[in-house]
Amino acid sequence: MKPILLLFINILFLQTFLVGQDSLVSQLNPVIVTANKTSEKRIESPIAISLVSKESIALYKPNRIDYLLNKVSGVYMPSIGNEQHMMAIRQPISLKGLYLYLEDGMPIRTSGLFSNNALIEINTATIQSIEIIKGPASALYGAEAIGGVINIVSPTTPKKNVLHISNQANSNGFIKTDLTYGFPTQSGGWLFNVNYGVQNEGPIEYSNYSKKVGSIKHDFKLNKWNGFQTIQLINYFAQMTGSLDSTHFFSHNFSALQTFTFRKINAFRFRQSLNYNWNEHATTSFNFMFRNNLMDQNPTYSIANTSNPTKFKGQTNSNTFDAFVIDIQHLVNLKSLNSKFMLGVTTDFTKQLFKAHFIDIFKDTFLGKYTNFSYPLKDSLLSNYQSKINNQAIYVNFISSIGNSIRTNLALRYDHFEYQFFNYINMGTPNSQTHFEAIIPKLGVTYNKNNFGGYVNFSEGFVPPQITEIYNAIRVPYLLPQTFQNKELGIWYHRQKWSIEIALYQLLGNNEIISVRQPDGVNLNQNAGSTQHIGIEYQLNYHATKWLSIIGNATNAKHTYLNTIIKNVDVSGKEINAAPHFWSNVSCNFYIKTALNCSIEWQHQSNYFMDEVNTTSYAGFDVVNFRMNYKIKKHEFWIHLLNATNSYYSTMATKNFSLKGNAAYSYYLGEPRSIAFGWKWSIVGPQ
Predict the structure, then answer these.
(1) Residues 347, 102, 393: CA angle, nearest 5 degrees
(2) All domains of the chain in start order, with CATH
(3) pTM
(4) Rounded CA separation 17/588 (Å)
(5) By the 8 A CB rule, do 264 and 274 touch?
(6) Is 489 exposed, middle or buried (0-12, 13-18, 19+ CB in 10 A)?
(7) From CA 506, how far away is CA 221, in angstroms rounded?
(8) Which residue in 101, 131, 45 sits closest to 411, CA to CA?
(9) 3-state SS of 520-534?
(10) b/e for 258-296, b at 16 or more Cβ within 10 A?
(11) pLDDT by residue (tens digit) across 196-235?
């Protein structure tokens, strides 16, 4: 009842201010590139897709991506500290590999080596816009594109010389500075960016981090050829605080159990993109990417109990991979048939090395901290293996118009995965070679006439077990591939001053992989039988003519276990834990003068069950943010009051239903009230 009442209040409030300006989180008008791997109008795509625009990013001045994604209906990206994150798009909040993260249309990581923290490997200072597909998109993008696809679009090189420097900080100890330099050439242009961010003395003890980033982009055009090259370098280090137990959370005790846990990432990506225009009807695109990635950890999530209350067990590990990716697609416009046809092939060859060591962890029960660790005197090697992942795929996409109002879209993809596993220790899983394959269809129809439109969509998705889900554990689980079937209906209606968009979906998962916390505290993956995910996503836009725009996004959803047994307990018919029924975000943007604007944002999350047996609930939260920006000549200043009411909340809360005591609970602390401020100086060129 509360979500319905809140939505009703939102609508009444929005109607009071019905005067408008263009929406900043726009869905209906823009041209997008993610939906069908080619530029296309939003209203011609038979899927739920949102665009976080360049204007929105300029207005909200985010220092983290979640500040933007949480404005989109159906999307919740909980921060778990230091740019680390979980995700929930048509799924419960989790770490699962059901999302595909792209940069300019290419995956930033290899399928089969999913990282829930993959967006750490993005340069947040060079985000021009973000495209978000909600629901399965495997028919074009392959595995992991199940809950959704997030495409980070980088800026093009400038047409005039630019030199910008900006600095920002907040009262919670965060500081960031970045420098952007770009210039045009006769055949294209160059764009460079370097930035450095650091967190010291944050709200939680032992939560410092630093991130150094460098990006280069080169555009060119020569006769019938055009394209670009990019280089990304990411260096990241964070102290891993982990979550709070119930005693620490409810007593507002932010002291950390940890004194040595960490995560370190070094990521390098090079991309070469080429387009050849045969004529006005045909284009071929060639994309080559090389990825090198190293992650070293002493992770909090691997700390497990023993019979001795002062001695625990854990691991240190190192995970590195090199990947070579080739993606080629040919697009033909069949004007006589009022259609276009795309054929694509892709191959991704990745070699991964993983090594982990047992560690003995010692806890000072008086201080309540893990004070130090050591390697056992005997062989401490836990895992030492190499894996090779060869993913090859071919896909087709046929788009055809029937008259002026109806448009059909058919896509089909064949994926073949080959895992080669080489175990370098004389225990555990033997050397093996495993194959997974799938044929993945998608069929969609759109209708548009005057100011009204809609779509229907049927799509499927396929996710083979991740290498790290199978082998990166003390106890190796047996996992089956996950499959998903999606049915979806969307409608939209827009007038000059307002618009509305609604999407209804049902997503059925089979052999869905879930992370189950074991009695000793270690999380272990297992297939959950089958699950059902149903929901409705809606966006309301009211546009102020000169001084006001209001955007309301909300989602109602229910996520249920079907035929599922967890820890020998039948949870069939129970709701999946960490799955809020309702999530909303309402923003009011005021344009007081050309140089001055401000916004008020209200986020609301409803309650949800913390455990799989539905006996313990978390109440949800409300967060209010205020932002103000001011421009004068070559300078721009901003000041933001985040979590203005100082709401005390958890971004994600769970409970191990098979354990008792405070340690059975896990709370990730939401950031307390902070003042963020910044300054940008456009030394050369426009802002």
Answers:
(1) 20
(2) 2-684 (2.40.170.20)
(3) 0.92
(4) 10
(5) no
(6) middle
(7) 45
(8) 45
(9) CCCEEEEECCEEEEE
(10) bebbbbebbbbbebebbbeeeeeeebebebbbebebebb
(11) 999 998 899 999 999 999 999 999 999 999 999 999 999 9
